[in-house]
Amino acid sequence: MTTPAVPTTVMALLVRPDGRYLLHLRDANKHIPNAGQWSVPEGRPEHGESLHDAIARELREKAGLRLPGLAPLAVIENTDADDRPTSRVQVYIGTWSGDSALLPLTAGTTLRWTDPDQIPYLTVGPRSTVAIHHHEDGSHIRPCGDGQLPVLRVRSTGTKTVRNVIGAHLYLEDDGKILLGLRHPDSAYAPNEHHFLAGHCERESAIACLIREAREEAGLGIKAEDVELVHVVHVLDDPGAEPRMQFVFRARHWTGEPRVLERNKCVSWGWWQPDALPERTVAYTRAAIDGIRKGSHYTELGWT
User: Fold this and answer.
1) What are phi and psi for residue 292, nearest 5 degrees?
2) Are residue 17 and residue 39 in the same domain, yes or no?
3) Is 246 in a helix, a strand, or coil?
4) Helix (H) or strand (E) segment spanning residue 281
5) Residues 198 and 279 in one domain
6) Contact (Cβ atoms closer than 8 angstroms) between residue 221 and residue 287
7) 195: closest CA among 286, 73, 102?
8) What are the backbone angles phi and psi of residue 40, rounded to the nearest 5°?
9) Are 23 and 114 in contact (CB under 8 A)?
10) 13 and 106 share a domain?
11) What angle do CA 56, 59, 65 make, to 5 degrees?
12) 173 and 267: one domain?
């Protein structure tokens, strides 16, 4: 197992002149990394996006912040219980002194300035904790000597079996084009990105989930006998996240035309050529489409 050469996640450690840090309370009871915990703002680069552009976009989209002067601070290396590297995070440092209560937050519960003395009494994600400690103790002032950013290690102690979330996804092809939906800008997952019609399995089979979601989200009628499994993507969005097993089913026949029925999730449906997908397409959706076109049946994303 080798460490990725390029970080796959970006974080912004924002500091006020009085030494307080801007912390973000993440949504609870959702299948996201560090659900219900405090963290510094973070996100993942989109396809073809630089790390610096990614953190600037995340701050702009999630909190309306446009901050010049963001600078690399450190790299966090996530390791497994055997100290083997699993992924890397690029941490940026920036300054801001505005009122956090006035920020137009689009994800999570709240943003607040937090005194470092309060942090031990909060449930703060391990990566955010190590980044704050690194800044607090002044380590960022002392150069490494070789021009490289310091590497901070966060070791996972989890060795128990964990639940994998199961998702069912609809692959519809009409005249060579594929059906994708544009997700709502306030969606907790992949806002403003194109994605399959999809849903999480409840107490039901994956095909039953697919049929239910197609009816509820787009008014499409699908029968179980017209469905075939065409691809599986095993996704790990983040070392601390619940793994996801994403089943992609092709429906050979269906009734109805796609309609927007759940406007809080999807704002439009459209048909796209597979070699000209929208720039903002969910990464594993793009990977599944590529795999289907190549005739493969399985893809892994986020695992190292």
Assistant:
1) -65, -40
2) yes
3) strand
4) none
5) yes
6) no
7) 286
8) -85, 155
9) yes
10) yes
11) 100
12) yes
Same domain, 145 and 184: no
Tell which residue, 32, 92, 25, 106, has the closest CA to residue 56: 92
Tens-digit pLDDT string for the chain (304 aa): 444 457 889 999 999 999 999 999 988 777 667 778 899 999 989 888 999 999 999 999 999 999 989 999 999 998 877 778 888 999 999 999 999 999 998 888 899 999 999 988 899 988 999 999 999 887 555 555 556 889 998 876 555 567 789 999 999 999 999 999 999 998 878 899 999 999 999 989 999 999 999 999 999 999 999 999 999 999 988 766 778 999 999 999 999 999 999 998 999 999 999 999 999 999 999 999 999 999 999 999 988 6
pTM, two decimals, is: 0.56
CA distance 32 to 242: 7
Do 77 and 194 sit in the same domain of this protein? no
Cα gap 159→174, rounded to integer Å: 45
User: H helices of the chain, where?
Assistant: 51-63, 126-136, 206-218, 283-294
Residue 91 lies in a domain: yes
Q: What is the DSSP letter of 245?
A: E
Residue 242's domain spans which residues?
165-301
